[in-house]
Amino acid sequence: MTISSLGFTLLILTMNLCLYSILGSLIGIKISSKALLRSAKNASYCNLITLAFSVSCLVYAFVTRDFSIKYVFNHSSLSMNPIYTWVAMYAGNEGSLLYISLVISISSFLTLFFIPSELNEAEPYIISILSGFLLFFVTVMIFLANPFDTFQNIPQDGRGINPLLAHPGMFSHPPLLMAGLATIVAPFSLILGMIFTGKFRNDGLDYIRTTSLIVWSILGIGLLLGSWWAYTILGWGGYWAWDPIENVGLMPWLIMTAFIHSIIVQRRRGMFRAWNVILIFLAFVLAQFGMFINRGGPVVSVHSFAASTLGYIFLGFMLFSALFCLIIFILNSHKIKSDNNVKSFLSRESAFLMNNFFLVAITFVTLWGLIFPLISELFANETVTVGAPYYNSVNGPVLLALLFVMGVGPNLSWRNTSKENLISNLLIPISLLFISFILLLFFSARPIISSLSISVIVLVLSTILIEWIRGSYKLTKTGTSWYISFIKLIINNRKKYGGYIVHISILLVAIGVIGINFYQIKVDKVLSVGEEIKIGNYKIELIEINENEYNDRREKIATFLIKDSENKTINTMTGNNTFYPSFNMASIRAAINSNPIEDLYIIPSDFINESKMKLIVSINPLVWWMWIGGPVFVLGTLISLWPYKNRKG
Amino acid sequence: MSNIKSDLLKILILSSIFLVVLISCISNNVDNNNREYNLYSQIMCPVCDGQTIAESQASISNDMKKMIKTQISEGKTDDQILYYFKERYGQEIISSPSYSGFNITVWIAPILIIIGSLLLLIYSLRKNMNKGKS
Description:
The complex is a heterodimer.
Chain A: H1 3-30, H2 34-63, H3 70-75, H4 85-89, H5 93-113, H6 123-143, H7 173-183, H8 185-196, H9 205-233, H10 244-269, H11 273-294, H12 311-332, H13 348-379, H14 388-408, H15 419-443, H16 448-476, H17 482-492, H18 494-518, E1 521-528, E2 532-535, E3 538-549, E4 554-564, E5 569-580, E6 585-589, E7 591-594, E8 598-609, E9 612-621, H19 623-641
Antiparallel strand pairs in A: 1-9, 2-3, 3-4, 4-5, 5-6, 7-8, 8-9
Helix pairs in contact in A: 1-2, 1-6, 2-5, 5-6, 5-7, 6-8, 7-9, 8-9, 8-11, 9-10, 9-19, 10-11, 10-13, 11-12, 13-14, 14-16, 15-16, 16-17, 16-18, 17-18, 18-19
Chain B: H1 2-27, H2 35-40, H3 59-73, H4 78-89, H5 104-133
């Protein structure tokens, strides 16, 4: 038996296991047979084993460079750097489907393994949703996109990996993003299960919150790593281009962000039940929309790695999921009524509502920009491009409003905020907002919007810090030091303070965005070896240009000496421009000297001859903070997720 | 009654702040210090997928950048330069739709929908709150 037929057989086995666990669960409920239900659950556990082995088969084929398999031929070669073998595994359509299937099986294993007893009744429904979702991907692979498809005549060497993917960021960005999108099915299935059993009240909400937080943080980190990758490798200093594929990853994340906020209100006040169901349905459908756009959608994008002719299948699946969600919602809407209403505009509930509103608004603006070219073609018969200027100017103010709510919300009490509380909580943050705004207006020549954004960041940050100081101060009264009190404060209410740390990470990202969008300096110049260029406080000298020929690529490397205004050497940096003839594609890697104040970013844009080249040099202030936002985001999420000892789940 | 008035006042203040921001945002898109790069980021690279010529390093993008520089030194306005490229490559070469004709929908629709649904949300919350009181 060859490795390819083994891998394929395992896929067929997975398909049967899925069918068995769906039918077993549904029939098990009908005839209330505990044994059948348990067997169906075990079948769904087995998917993890079969898929893990199937993925191992493909990885083995890659490691041995088994070019009899078409997928291995298309995405690897003998001369490629062996480190990227794992990346090659998910570099194309078929392999990424296999990877996604593995992720779904892992997430359904974890979801079912840790399921709390209060969800026992809903479990069979949850299993059938999870297995049904997996079944779709496995079936598509078996019939339309087999990763183990073979050649009759075995080629000598493969085509190699797409050069854009040969980057360390590719070990984490695509797998995390795909995993985040695929695993939205976990909270989705939990909520569906509870709706089917008519129990979408407070049971299991903690568990739903945990799974959603995990999914949401995976997706968030995937997006941020994508930005980082774009910043370092695409070689033009951008971190977010509002490209369609970026947008389809962002939209489910925004909706999930709304969901993890509004689920808090459901836990605390028994409100927003129907709204939460709508949000999770929306997130799931948008994730399927992302799969569709990614695999052969009707829009142009720089991310054409997984493009295939399967677009219609994924479109069909998305429409099916949307219809399914709609029907489920209509049939069950009477079961998911809320217990309470919003009592006052000045309440925590209403702040959460505003947060949700603005997040959904950003999603809507993004979706509208994404599909507008199709609408324009249909109704006005004109091809248009909707690019960054649209998204920046329409989403910008909404994002700012969202940040504002992030600053005001935590100062409001549940139900209603008394005047005294309102004044004592908001006085300092709001005054700081105005003071910083006025100062910035005087001292900064930049657009008003940047001054406004910075002062709103001051508002949010001061709100969080004041809360921390007040909380710690209370604890110091028991005799502990400030330092210990602060740690105690965070440990005692991890959910809340973990959330605040995540808020700080969002602020860090916002600081980077403001720095690069409003305070960037850019020049371009042709430079010969030995010549110098001045920008800001830097002097950049081109020391040498080297050229290297490899089997699969031609590499041109420029070395620069960076000095400060007093001629002290700061650093020696290299930037390269590599051309891959078999892909007819150039990959440019910028030279970046990064510190908390600013990044010096040198793009080797064009090598004119052996001693002359064209550079684009920019100073990107505060971008460093954006990348620091990543670890802070993870830290906050982990604190927020860390389980309490005396409670389960 | 005075309660409702003060609430309305708050809403009014908040939405006017929102509008001011919106307007300043749209009008502040043009930064004169970086005129060249501003134009680059408004023109799509004709041979790449979804990149502007500011981002793309394709040779045609570099040629187009040179052309823009020449036209700026000839004293042409931004609109004239954009029009020059639009004439040759069609509307899709510009990175965002124009503010005229059918294309204005792309800008107007989301703003109207967001403000409209915000007002609707506030109205229905109000109604529910009053119901709770009586």
